Amino acid sequence: MGRVLLLYLSIYSFFLTYSVNAEEAIRITSDKKTYPLTASTLLCIDTLNSYSIDMFLEDNDPSICKTVNQNGLPHGYSDATIWVRSKIHTPAPVNQQWIAELDNALIDYVDLYVIKNGKAIQHFESGDRRPFASRSIKARTYRFPVELTPGTTELLWKIRSQSGINLPLVLYDKEKLEEKDLSEYLLSGIFYGILIILAIYNFVFFIVVRKIIYFYYVAFIVSYGIMTLSFHGFTPLLIWFDFPWLYNDGVLFFVSMCVLFSVLFGQRFLETAINAPRVHTFLNALIIFNMIPVILSFCDLYAITTRLAAFLGVITPIILVFVGLSVLKKNERRAKLYLLAWSLFFFGTTVFSLHKFGLFQGSWFIMHAQQFGVLFKIMVLSYALSDQLQSLLYLDQLTGVANRESIKRLFASAVRNADKNQYAFAVLTLNIDDFKTINDSLTHKAGDELLKKLTDRLISSLPKHNTIIRMGEDEFLILFEHIENTTTLARHADNILMLIRKPFTLDKELIHITASMGIALYPNDGQAYDILIKNSGTALHKAKQLGKNRAYFFNTELDNYAIDHLKLHNDLYRALDKKELFLLYQPKINAKDHTLAGVEVLLRWKHPERGIIPPDIFIQIAEENSVILQITRWMLEESFKKLKQWHEMGWKEIYIAANITAKDLEDKYFLKDLLNLLKQYDLTTDMLELELTERIIMHSCEENIHRMDALHQAGIKVSIDDFGTGYSSFKYLKSYHVNSIKIDKSFIDQIESDPRTAKIVKAMTALGHELGMKVVVEGVENKQQVEMLTKMHCDIIQGYYFDKPLTEEELTAKYFLKR
Ligand code: C2E
Ligand code: CA
Ligand code: CA
Questions:
Q1: How far is the CA of 659 from the centre of ligand 3 (A)?
Q2: Residue nearest atom 31 of ligand 1, based on CA coordinates
């Protein structure tokens, strides 16, 4: 870029200094219709603006002037009045009309004197600071009908302008000029037609998609369009009222808007905010800087504004190219399209400029290279925008991976590859465990951030040819290709889960999550994509069922399981009505004296065809929809009924512990209903303890903390179930009112064999006591465990060593009647 610019400048300066010796008259011949008036002309620059026409009438060759050829005419900015004189020799009377033209629509004041024998025989006035009505020919350029009679005629131009000066002066045969106009209008029609179509097309997208980038694009095209219209002098022709501001200062406004919007567009298009934050800040500064000429264009400060606008107009595209280069690594496709667009623009401009300086012969294409450059540029950008729309449709907007819409396409390609290369591929359905509770405990932003970070981890860990699809909130599909065997696949799956278990930092806090995964293989587990997804979903369900945080391979028995699962779902609705549910009671024993402390109520479902279904299977199914609320209510009422009966029998010291789920806690009527029920059965709140699993508490949101507070206020005891299985178990203890912790069975299982586990249980017990809580242990199965736990000062022991869950009759027989 820099080199091209240098080339421009050197060619430019070379021609600027070029001057010739004597002013030659232009000879009109019968066959030529167009005469550049600048072949050799007299040029006077009147810096004090003090010359008058008389000086030229009296003195035929004013010494303050010099003779120059066309490239010697001034370019750039000047406050001076410029006088240019050409002599024309007309050999014989001709039956032609002649028009002298200055093809620079921005010039402020133009006067043309036609001088014959030392007398001004015609005087025309024009310029864009003068009313359009004052022009003798209403055209986009300044045109004057000059009279050429035999002999020598002088055309004397007096020009003054604050806009950039550039003086293409030409004498035309009128018919020839009309011909030229026609072809120019045709081209302009096509050019502006394309601009209008692209503007409308993208504006419609803006309305539909509501992405500001489309607006920036349209604003860029519109201001560019009006800018070129003004540059070429079309504005007064297109606007029916005389409005010199628009012809003159309006140009500056639209030039500046055009540059401004190209920066705004570039910023969005290249997503510099994400891809290059420092560049983004710099562009923000550039935007503010670009607003200055926009504002100044209203302030009647033409001279400064025009220079500033021109400076920014040159420097900004160059900056934007470097911005494009700077994001090339981060977003290759988009940056490449962007750079291509600008290259086309620069190419067009360069070809045009080189032609202007005489380096290229002016073919029709070269003469309009600048317009073509711009057209190609905006067409490429419009294509890039629709390409982006494609990504809007097929990419997940949060994480940037493929979305559901692209499943079909991605599967088709995976199937094609697999068939061609004769290998299997796997569909991994990945789901974060307890995402809802985790998400509720985070802010919306942090939840999104978590998903983003998770995806980034997945992307960076997976081999390149594997595709990630985000199916919904926390569910992802991974198409795992090139599978050698299931063992390596299982290892990959485990690696993925391990990766997810590593803590995430959100708002400087560490968040621990786990995920479960179901795996189905093509072609063994299905050929069509929907079957494969369904089967890997079934396997996922099984993985969750087995305790989450694991991967499970689909197999045909699972297929039955899936059907089962669905059936169970339906059956569960009727289980309550059909009285298929019943309760068992597992004693909780005081460690000190082995007396009964209370009972834990445990649900059972006696399915008419399948017999007893364990609660961890159907509770989970029930939790998937709101039937859990009814089940919990039934369980509570049933156990309160029993408790009341026991009281009436004279068994007063017994209390019950009931399990509830997150869904129950989150139900806004839960506490109210609970208290009503207690009242209904004449029970006090201290006879009830609620067991909440650690997971619920760990990921609890603000509201759940309030709900637990409310339970505490009402006098209901709360116990943390499965204590120690979650992460950072101790952290939340300080923020909740908890009466007891229930150390998970997995610890008790290892207490005799693993001294470290024993130490952990001891420490947990000590801590529980320190915080004023009772310590309960569950899953105690042998005498040795009982002895160890008693030594550690656990308060309450529950487990098969003392009792399995008992029926009501078994319970009363053992603990009431034998008292
Ligand atoms: P949990 O709350 O951790 O309940 C303890 C489970 O461990 C019970 O299984 C119990 O039978 C079993 N268990 C107790 N002592 C021993 C032992 O020494 N060895 C072994 N191997 N197991 C022992 P159960 O009844 O199958 O319940 C499983 C889970 O189902 C419960 O885990 C609880 O989370 C849930 N659940 C049961 N009833 C209800 C209920 O009414 N409502 C809700 N929401 N969940 C329930
Ligand atoms: Ca002007
Ligand atoms: Ca429990």
A1: 5
A2: 616
CA 327 – CA 334 distance, rounded (Å): 9
pLDDT of residue 376: 93
User: What percent of the chain shows pLDDT beyond 70?
Assistant: 94
pLDDT score recorded for residue 701 = 66
Query: What integer pLDDT is reported at residue 5 of this predicted model?
Result: 39
Q: How far is the CA of 302 from the centre of ligand 2 (A)?
A: 9
Residue 484: partners with Cβ closer than 8 Å, 6 or more residues away: none
Q: Which is nearest to 720 in space by CA: 760, 745, 690, 764?
A: 690
Q: Which protein residues have their CB within 5 A of the ion that is ligand 2? A: 106, 108, 128, 163, 248
Alpha helices in 714-791 (DSSP H): 745-750, 755-770, 783-791
Instruction: Give the helix/strand (H/E) hosting 294.
Output: helix 277-296
Give the H/E segment covering residue 8.
Answer: helix 2-16
Q: Which amino acid does the sequence have at 338?
A: Y
Alpha helices in 327-368 (DSSP H): 332-356, 364-367
Q: Read off the tokens for 478.
A: 């991974």
Q: How far apart are CA 770 and CA 403, in angstroms?
A: 50
Which residues form ligand 1's pocket by a CB distance below 6 Å?
586, 601-603, 614-616, 619, 635, 659-661, 691, 721-722, 778-781, 798-800, 805
Ligand nearest to the CA of 725: 1
Closest ligand 1 atom to residue 748 Cα is: 18
Strands (E), 572-713: 581-590, 596-607, 611-613, 656-659, 688-693
Q: Stretch 529-543: mean pLDDT, rounded?
A: 92
- 731 Cα to the center of ligand 1, angstroms: 25
pTM equals: 0.56
pLDDT band at 438 (very low <50, low <70, confident <90, very high): confident
Q: Looking at residues 776-802, what average pLDDT do you find?
A: 96
Protein residues placing their CB within 5 Å of the ion ligand 3: 659, 691, 721
Q: Which two tokens stand for residue 283?
A: 């562009």
Looking at residue 3, its pLDDT comes to 34
